[in-house]
Amino acid sequence: MSTVAKIELDNANDTRLRGVRWWKEVGWKHLFAIAMIAYCVFPILYVLSAALNPGGTLTGSTRLFTAVSLQNFTELFTNTNFPRWILNSFIVSTVTAVGTVIMGAAAAYAFSRFRFVGRRGGLTALLIIQMFPQMLAFIAIFLLLLTLRDIYPFLGLESLFGLIAVYLGGALGANTFLMYGFFNTIPAELDEAAKIDGATHAQIFWGMIMRLVTPILAVVGLLSFVGTYGEFILARIVLARPENYTLAVGLYVWGSDERNAPWGLFAAGAVVAAVPIILLFMYLQKYIVSGLTAGGVKG
Amino acid sequence: MSTDTQPPEAPPTSTSAPQLSHARDLSRPGFYVKLVLMMLVNAFGLYGIMAAFGQEQWVILAVLVVTLVVADYVYFSKRSIPAKYLMPGLVFLLVYQIYVMANTAVVAFTNYGDGHNDLKGPAITQILKTSDRRLDGTPTYPVTVVDVNGSLGFAVVEDDEVLVGTQEDPLEPVTGAVESGGRVTQVPGASVLPLAEIQQRQNEVLDLRVSVSDDPDDGWLRTDNGTMAYQARSVLRYDEAADTFTAENGTVYTADPAQGLYVAPDGTSLSPGWRVFVGTDNFTRMFTDSRLQGPFLSILLWTFAFAILSVLTTFALGLLLAVVFNDERVKGRRFYRAMFILPYAFPGFLAALVWKGMLNQNFGIINQTLLNGATINWLGDGTLAKLSILGVNLWLGFPYMFLICTGALQSIPGELTEAGIMDGAGPWRRFWNLTLPLLMVSVAPLLIASFAFNFNNFSLIYMLTGGGPNYPGAPLIIGETDILISMVYSVAFESGVRQFGLASALSILIFVVVGFISWLGFRQTRKLEEII
Q1: DSSP code, position A60
Q2: Touching check for A210 and chain B: CB below 8 Å?
Q3: Where are the domains of chain B?
Q4: Within the 224-283 window of chain A, which residues sit less than 8 Å (CB to CB) from chain B?
Q5: What sections of the protein cross the membrane (chain A) (predicted)?
Q6: Would you kindly state where each structural domain of chain A is located, as residue ranges?
Q7: B403 neighbourhood in chain A, CB within 8 Å
Q8: CA distances to A171, B151, B238 from B242, in Å
């Protein structure tokens, strides 16, 4: 970009820009930034204001921060299903993340460290499978869970574990490659050394490899957590009873009903639901930038 | 992401003697951990096999048996070490991704949906039971609803004898029951349902048919209110040999295996039908049904337009910001950056709902406060709704583009720009001919991925507009802002009659498009890499 070279040229003559020239070259960027920040922050301020507004309707929330109280939040945690939804979301996202990490790492270990028949074919198949998002087959998933309900009620419709099992079905396709690349960076000499010392394949995997790849495990786990937390369509078709909803489904039900919507409750719920994800994102942004997630993990 | 990454050369089955895994060594805890886990797996599998046997789900039974045998072999044999690591993930992948995708393809060629939910046998029973009418000249009985070992039944008094029957078992005399005033009050081995519970299980009670005898032509008892029952019989006669139903007025309904329906000569049919393969009907219907073809083509176009415009707008804004703020003279860039990615950090489904509230025609903050009381119908007018969707997606999506463009810009070596300056290229030329092509190398695959993502951006559309405003006159509930995936959802779950077959056929269309885009993506990655 031109600026890089320009800076050097500018710096050679004049260490600081002043007056008109500063405005022309740097100052306007600050104005631009302020305008952009307003654009970025406005909806977030709005939802915060609506959450703090005790009126609780859409109409009442058109003036920002006219009334401030925690009434919506108290209501949220005492008289609604919201605490259940948080719990459900955390159970589903955590179990899915842990399962994804373990199964993905195990598969990556197998592909990276063993030579077996069908290895290349398996890798290629995974590469093709990961192109197709699992949610495209949501009708067949619904029908499958409908049938499974008669055999394993806890894996059928209306069951959190049924939903988790569905999410775990997408685990291998999406994450094995990411981990496979990382596993390959760990020298095989380490395995050999461990083997000579009498370690078994299980000891090498659990005791050595898994410790060396902890960073990628954390990233995959957190990305999976964030993705599951915001997943909507599958959760919507599997969970139909209000006490089973995850946050995404529950808040959708509150927020979509415009006339009788408990807008204040929705806003308060949105604030509570967004905080952990915003924090995680701030932490994860460097991995997202590096292209790990290709296309975005927004749910 | 690339298969080219060379894995370390590790021949694990090397010359050294095969090491005994601790999970095989009886003196180590590993073995017992494995044993307990495998016991759980086997218990789970056997339970499922028995349940599948009870439900007569033969396919599931076969799958469970095979999976269980394979699992036991894999984890108890000395060989197949890689399989020990692959199996858990593979099972989930096969069931919840491969199988469901294959099944989508199968369902796409059937008429599966409401009215065609089951196989032919259950459909015949269902037709008989739903087409019953009270027999003329038969009395009503005071009836007691009872629960016999978990299944509902009726208890009635006939000729001073108490008869009890359930859905499965016809009426039989019972001894030891207590009766008062023609009504049964106690039955040994069964519990009498109190009124409250009858109300609670209303639908089950109303659907209950208790056969009078083993011969279906004798009819069955049914109730409309839970207290009085009458004898009813199907007004249709089923002729097994001819596979026809005959109504009382003589109309003959013949089985039509092409439609999965019993059809009369005048075109009327009996409900429900059954599931049959209908060939490519579901695929061609979109183009041949005159009420559908217009809306469908618009939706197809809009899906592409939405995906392309989403990528272009977010990329343009993201790139602009990245270029403008890739300038060390601007102080506070770290702060700006943190603010710019806030929309990305905010969960997407929540953002769509918040924007929906903000854009509300009468009460939204945008009309009320920012536009001083205007009543612009942001989400209710076709064109405005499309613009709103793009606008909201711009807010949601530009930070991602900003992040990846910033990263890509910083990785472009400064020497190249200097060389450009030396050659006398102006800033514009340097941007278009140097920076942008180099940027595209790393960014293009992500743009294609972003296109694929937006092509299926169900939650944004569904939460913001629900696909509306709807097309009037279309036989499905679809609207101007629906994209293919939200149309699929509507056809499958929200258009009144659930049409899984049609919806699956539409999903197959999406599969094809997504597959093509991904293939393009891979090719593009290779091609751009060759440039450098």
Answers
A1: G
A2: no
A3: 29-107, 112-131+248-279, 134-234, 288-531
A4: 229-230, 232-233, 237, 248, 251-252, 255-256, 258, 261, 263, 266-267, 270, 273-274, 277-278, 281-282
A5: 31-52, 85-111, 123-148, 160-183, 204-226, 263-284
A6: 19-69, 81-289
A7: 285, 288-289
A8: 51, 34, 9
Q: Which fold has domain A81-289?
A: MetI-like fold (1.10.3720)
CATH superfamily of B288-531: MetI-like (1.10.3720.10)
Locate B455 and state its tokens. Answer: 């092509």
Q: A202 and B414: CB-CB below 8 Å?
A: no
Element (DSSP H or E) covering residue B239: strand B237-239
| A219: its two tokens | 């990233």
- What angle is formed at CA A101 by the lines to CA A122 and CA A294, rounded to 5 degrees? 70
Question: Which fold would CATH assign to domain B134-234?
Answer: Periplasmic binding protein-like II (2.40.430)
Q: CA-to-CA distance for B407 and A4, rounded, in angstroms?
A: 15
pLDDT 10s per residue in chain B (532 long)? 344 445 555 444 444 444 555 556 666 777 888 899 999 999 999 999 999 998 888 999 999 999 999 999 999 888 888 999 999 999 999 999 999 999 999 999 999 988 888 888 878 877 877 777 777 777 788 888 888 877 788 888 887 788 888 877 788 888 888 887 778 888 887 888 888 888 878 878 888 888 887 776 777 888 888 888 888 877 788 887 888 888 877 788 888 888 888 888 887 888 788 888 988 888 998 888 888 888 999 999 999 999 999 999 999 999 999 999 988 888 888 889 888 988 988 988 899 999 998 898 888 888 888 888 788 888 888 899 999 999 999 999 999 899 889 888 888 888 888 888 888 888 888 888 888 988 888 888 888 888 988 999 999 999 999 887 888 888 888 899 999 999 999 999 988 788 999 999 999 999 999 888 888 877 776 665 554 4
- Residue A70: count other Cβ atoms within 10 Å of its Cβ: 12
B contacts of A162 (beta carbons < 8 Å):
none
Size of interface A-B (CB pairs under 8 A): 375
Q: Which residue has the tokens 């509570």?
A: A272
Amino acid at A9: L
Contact between chains at B350 and A30 (C-beta distance less than 8 A): no
CA distance B436 to B405: 10
> What secondary structure does DSSP assign to B139-174, as a single string?
PEEE-EEEEETTEEEEEEEETTEEEEEESSS--EE-
- ipTM value for the complex: 0.86
Asked if B98's CB is within 8 angstroms of A198's CB, the reply is: no
Q: How close B229 comes to chain A (CA, Å)?
A: 31
Q: Is A121 within 8 Å of chain B by CB?
A: no
DSSP per residue over A191-257, as a string?
HHHHHHTT--HHHIIIIIIHHHTHHHHHHHHHHHHHHHHH--HHHHHH--SGGG--HHHHHHHHHH-
> Is A11 within 8 Å of chain B by CB?
no
Residue type, B35: L
The alpha-carbon gap from B171 to the nearest alpha carbon of chain A, in Å, equals 28
For residue B522, the distance in angstroms to the closest alpha carbon of chain A comes to 10
By the CB < 8 Å criterion, does B49 face chain A?
no
